């Protein structure tokens, strides 16, 4: 009993843990997938938004003459056809069949179902709409009473010339400025082999409606062009499918089988509300296997205990691994973005420096302006270091990252300290330095700066309470030793190796309100090792805090 | 951001053109020839006849720049059906194509199966070896996301889109598109939207498995080329010829507006997309190649006229972007017909060359109609139409002394014998290939 009871308990705990784990892992996966799909949807939303903006501005700029509207159809890739509909429901454009093009007549064939259904696109009720539906396939254009000429005469100009309807009240309304929030929207309908889209807009309440029938393949092409070609997330497949569930575009390495249910799904918004995004992945199997392992544990006592322990171990391991993966994804994404950011950032720094230089020449330069530029310079420098970190991290498996050249270690240390001086001062940290590396050595100044920046950055973020940053350098034959100390909260002895693992931030308490990617120290150590040295967190001196000891292989250089 | 035809910049360019023309009247221009197939018509009868507008590209003469720089996306099908010899030849063809480019050009390589991969993002052709190395890595496998492949190809072209370059997507496919829009109509719509941006898609179908209607429509609507490569060896030849054309573009954004005279009615444009509204027909060509004639055949209905009078049939306006001077050039021409009481005079005055071109267009439409009949299961009707077409062509060939008509006549008779059995699939592809060649005056 004494043995069986705890074993049974253990087994029960194990099964519970494994089941919880299974559920948690499943949920976690779903969360990640759903997050991915949400990101994708926002890409689609952005593409649709751009289309909408373009169509909106088109409808604002148009004068409304037949030739101008036709030219729009000829020139704009998104426009298959345009229409302008008067408040009384009749079409001003396309013109009457006697003077319309084949394409314009086909437009009415395609859209007949819309007009027959009575949809009015923002028009006010009470117009004589029935003209069209009484003559399927044709329509009648009523001529404004005070306009000259019969059918097919030049249509009134929209926008440039007030709309002529013979109704004084309406004319008066048109002469008002456009509303700040004009009425516009999307209309979708099925014709041929898929979805068709109309974007419409009524610039004035009760005024004419301007509509664009989208060139749907161009629209779809724009959506696809905005989507990636890779998931950047291991084996998985994201698929965009249309109203009939047929895939339209997909990416990612995982090949889903026919009829496979996606692990996560997301419906799109207007105007693609019939379309869905699906995430396919073999992840459900992974979770299932975990559960099966725990069930075996229920059968035998000791095996159960083992399985339970295993389950718990897996529980912790998986949780940790999940976090690691999610953080790694974050960095992988940031890495891609970082490449894109580098060039503009360099430009910003360059121009900030240029501006500061120019300002320096002028005796009566505005001190406030100079301060602003200093801030721009310092902050873009900081952003540059962050980006540098991410890029270095993503390349850390590749050799040859460090390229030593003749340089002065102390100069690099002093310069880096200078960069940080304003930020440290603001955080109330005083700098003490004793630099004695001596002379020119073969060293990679950029790598050294990056290592130091990561260490100083940590002091600024986590150890400002200590009020001191102390840097000591010492040269010894072919090596230099740089010690960076603070009087902050320090790191428990047991965790001193762990801080060098990527994505580790010691305690939530400590880092509350402090953000970071969690790769700074990992990079710093990598760089130190590539530079033939090491970076360790040593036993602190009398005042507590952290004491980082950096050694680098840096033989003396001939100049 | 949707590129819009730069009316404003062109307007500025136009001012320059006017100035340039005054300074150097010798600047090279496209040759515009508008002529009637029957310049003399029988009096007293309403008549339907043809008007031909010919456009011939010039030679580049500017020193140090013998051609227009290009910006081309090579989009390759690597679905599983491309395995073996096909993919090998595709690699060879793509490398050969890249070898013809130089540093002033931009190239990208896009692969598609179930998904799309941008193998070589749009780049200047400065390191050919690096591009070859990438191309050599291509292996086959997966389904066919053709629409997405073309879209991503166009996306690469857009990165360096420039009106002063030849902006082109070259698509190779050997299979049926099965991911994304896959109908000829849908791909035609995509083509139609791309030409509005100034991007043409040339399509090459390889082997007997691809959808020739889809490939035809996509090229047709975007004014690229379409060709059938029966095997891998043909593929290399066709890529070579296609790049020959791409590298010889002398004019782009070629807009032809034909305004018919009083009482003359434009009926249809044969074999090309056109917009007809009232008495005006408008045709857009994306480009003209040097020393090569592209033409437009407009069927017109001419009202009855009195003998010994003349009638203006149409005025033709041409505007295009001259790739040598980077200006927008405009040319105009008018064409008229006379009326005679003598049937003999009317017949004798027929412009043989113009008439032959018009006959070729009519016969090509007949050939197209035969494909539609065959598709509808009306094999016998299709056969009869092809035989009639062949016989008619043979007769017309001797009337207008045109060897090309004679050859096409024989081709039609051959088509008639291959409407059924194993040969039909490949024969249909040859028919589309030839139709494209005739309708768009493909140079190879």
CATH architecture of the domain at 402-553 in chain A: 2-Layer Sandwich
Strand segment count of chain B? 16
The helix/strand series of chain A, from N terminus to C terminus, equals: HHEEHHHEEEHEEEEHHHEHEEHEEHHEE
Mean pLDDT of chain B: 90
Quaternary: heterodimer
Largest sheet report of chain A = 5 strands, antiparallel
CATH topology of the largest domain in chain B: Rossmann fold
Describe the overall structure.
- The complex is a heterodimer of chains A (559) and B (444).
- Chain A is built from 13 helices and 16 strands.
- Chain A has a five-stranded antiparallel β-sheet, with helices on both faces. Chain A has a five-stranded mixed β-sheet with strand order 11-13-14-16-15, covered by helices on one side. A four-stranded antiparallel β-sheet of chain A has the order 7-6-9-8, covered by helices on one side.
- Chain A starts with a helix and ends in a 6-residue tail after the last strand.
- The longest helix of chain A has 61 residues, at 301-361.
- Among the domains of chain A are: 79-214, no CATH class; 402-553, Histidine kinase-like ATPase, C-terminal domain (Heat Shock Protein 90, 2-Layer Sandwich), CATH 3.30.565.
- Chain A is of the alpha+beta class and 559 residues long.
- Chain B is globular and about 70 Å long.
- Chain B is an alpha/beta fold and 444 residues long.
- Chain B has three domains: 25-63 and 250-343, Sandwich (Immunoglobulin-like); 70-247, Rossmann fold (3-Layer(aba) Sandwich), CATH 3.40.50; 352-440.
- Chain B contains twelve helices and 16 strands.
- Chain B has helices at residues 7-23, 85-99, 128-136, 146-159, 184-197, 212-222, 232-246, 343-348, 352-375, 379-399, 403-416, 423-440; strands at 31-36, 40-42, 47-56, 70-77, 106-112, 116-124, 166-173, 200-206, 226-229, 249-260, 265-269, 275-277, 280-289, 293-302, 310-322, 327-340.
- In chain B, strand 7 (166-173), helix 5 (184-197) and strand 8 form a beta-alpha-beta unit.
- Helix content of chain B is 40%, strand content 29%.
- In chain B, strands 2-16-15-10-13-12 form a six-stranded mixed β-sheet. A six-stranded mixed β-sheet of chain B has the order 6-5-4-7-8-9, with helices on both faces.
